[in-house]
Amino acid sequence: MFTIPVNAHVQLKFPEIHDATALFTLVDADRPGLGRFLPWVEKTKTVEDEARFLHFVREQVSQDQLWAAVILVEGQAAGMIDIHQLDAENRTGEIGYWLGKTYRGRGVVTAALAAVERVAFRELALTRLVLVAANTNTASQAVAQRRGFQQEGILRQALVLPEGVSDAVLYSKLVSD
């Protein structure tokens, strides 16, 4: 459906069912790390679970409820990034992403997010993006800050995580920023 070059090493591509094995392998290799902030990790127990999720993603994309991409690094699946909570009437969406542990700390998500912002503001005609990160997820907060998202506030006890209920930091970026 699409491939978006991000830089010399990173691309975004439309999620295909055959990506399930590679994505599941990444999740399975870092359950403790990913699972700290992403409750769906504990429910993703098999490649079939991941394939079911990708079917759901494709269905949501076809209904204009979601925009999603697999993040590729040197042609290998490294994670996913999406715009969910798409609201065409209010022209808003919420960013979500995750990355396998071997790909972190290399600017991959920051670069991917820059490309997704272009899609959101130019192709989807959104005017506002939000990004919500657990108050203890400093890496995700740093990505938002590097991309010029503005902190709007703290959402008290907004996230139910495996470690318990957590406050979240709300960031936003406008097309005019």
Automatic annotation (TrEMBL):
PROSITE patterns: GNAT
Annotated ranges, domain N-acetyltransferase: 24-176
Protein name: N-acetyltransferase GCN5
Stored InterPro entries: Acyl_CoA_acyltransferase, GNAT_dom, Ribosomal_N-acetyltransferase
Domain of life: Bacteria
A molecular-function term among this protein's GO annotations: protein-N-terminal-alanine acetyltransferase activity
Keywords: Transferase
Coiled-coil segments: none
Matching Gene3D superfamilies: 3.40.630.30
TM helices/strands, residue ranges: none
Signal peptide from the UniProt entry: none
Pfam entry (one): Acetyltransf_3
A single cellular component GO annotation: cytoplasm
